[in-house]
Design goal:
Blueprint (H helix, E strand, L loop, with lengths): L1 H27 L2 H19 L4 H9 L1 E6 L2 E6 H27 L5 H25 L17 H10 L6 H25 L9 H16 L9 H14 L5 H8 L14 H25 L11 H34 L11 H10 L4 H11 L3 H34 L1
Antiparallel strand pairs: 1-2
Length: 411
């Protein structure tokens, strides 16, 4: 009896600690938790920007922060540090996801990737056409790419909230669609939102990338050693006039996918992405939402600029909420009818519509493109408002439709 007591005494707290650790680990890697964090951060930003303390909100993100080394100094606004520096880590994870999928995931088999690829193309083209059709020519057309993006964490998180009862292939399809969508968004940023490039500065970026390749050739696998050449790559891309976060995508795409025999238990692309995932999901993305979702709603349309802002908001909302699912469904239907591919196992067209509705959650990437498209504060706020309204509506519509599918299946 005494031995049993002495044995069970320390074991009980240890078991409890293990259970807590396991629950925290599941929470950290939970898509639903990431989506909830984004939603809470966006709601906090909206509440703060429309409260009596709204001046402090804008003052915070315009405050300057920097580092100095002797005569050299690098000082930028807090907004820059979030959107241009920290978001590079977000794009690094995106690049690693694309790299992994191209090597051994859904994008490795062309026929398996064809349906989500076609759906993603429709989900980019149709919303862009809807936006262009609804806004007049001129500066407002610069926002055509805003409703083309899908927020991976938010969309997959909403799907996770539906719980069991959905075919596993639906999550794979939605995740693959969103990854391809992000890849297209990266290409759009590089091609259409990087004007006046200083091509000579590409030499600096090339030197940084060369440093990465040299370290890989030497067998250096610790991620921290790549911070310096990665920073040189970031600086070079920034100096060219392109958006510096593209450096994250480049680094992600060149991350090794093979393990060194006898030296590693996981490939760098898996190990680094896994270690960065909680920091991106629970740190960088909510901070981005807090810094960018604060739209002041107090002013009413009273002049031409306000009228233009209203058009931008309505066009983005319509493109995300209606154009996204229409594009996904149309291109998927054409691909299946032409026998290029078939629906994934156990998936029906009702599931495809659910994926289309959830792809209308633009949020992170859409707001990010909006910051590149519009320099005018009023138009940028209008774009953010359209993204937030459409993303929230798409999430609600997806939840309602998903619950209806589950209810019909039980009947």
């Amino acid at each position: 009896m005494t031995q049993t007591s002495s044995h069970c005494g320390p074991a009980a707290p240890l078991s409890f600690a293990h259970r807590c650790t396991a629950r925290i680990a599941r929470l950290i890697h939970s898509d639903a938790a990431g989506g909830v964090m984004l939603l809470l951060a966006a709601a906090a930003a909206l509440a703060w920007a429309n409260s009596p303390a709204q001046d402090s909100y804008h003052a915070l993100w315009h405050a300057t922060l920097g580092v100095s080394l002797g005569a050299w100094e690098f000082v930028q606004s807090a907004h820059f540090w979030v959107n241009d520096v920290l978001m590079t880590v977000f794009f690094l994870v995106v690049g690693m996801e694309i790299r992994r999928e191209l090597h051994s995931g859904a994008l490795a088999e062309p026929r398996q990737a064809l349906l989500p690829m076609m759906a993603a193309l429709g989900g980019v083209a149709v919303p862009a056409l809807v936006y262009v059709a609804l806004v007049p020519a001129g500066e407002l057309l610069r926002g055509w790419a805003i409703p083309t993006a899908t927020d991976i964490a938010f969309a997959v998180g909403v799907l996770a909230l539906l719980g069991r009862g959905m075919p596993p292939a639906l999550r794979v399809f939605l995740l693959t669609l969103a990854i391809i969508d992000d890849l297209i968004a990266v290409l759009i940023i590089a091609l259409f939102y990087s004007g006046g490039l200083q091509w000579s500065m590409l030499l600096i970026a090339a030197l940084g990338l060369l440093g990465v390749f040299c370290m890989q050739a030497l067998g250096i696998r610790r991620a921290w050693f790549y911070v310096l050449p990665g920073a040189v790559l970031w600086w070079g891309i920034w100096q060219t006039g392109a958006h510096p976060t593209l450096a994250g995508v480049v680094l992600g795409l060149v991350t090794p996918v093979q393990m060194l025999q006898g030296r590693e238990s996981a490939a760098p692309v898996d190990r680094v992405a896994c270690s960065l995932h909680p920091w991106v999901t629970f740190g960088i993305m909510p901070l981005f939402a807090l810094a960018n979702a604060g739209v002041t709603l107090q002013s009413a349309p009273s002049n031409a600029l306000d009228a233009s802002s209203a058009v931008v908001t309505a066009a983005i909302a319509a493109a995300l909420l209606l154009g996204k699912p229409a594009g996904v469904m149309l291109m998927s239907w054409l691909a299946v009818q032409s026998r290029l591919c078939a629906l994934p196992p156990h998936m029906r067209w009702s599931h495809m519509l659910l994926a289309g509705l959830l792809s209308g959650i633009g949020f992170t990437m859409s707001i990010f493109i909006g910051t590149l498209a519009f320099a005018d504060a009023a138009l940028l706020n209008a774009a953010k408002l359209g993204v937030l309204a459409a993303s929230a509506s798409a999430a609600i519509a997806g939840l309602i439709w998903g619950l209806r599918i589950k209810g019909a299946r039980r009947c």
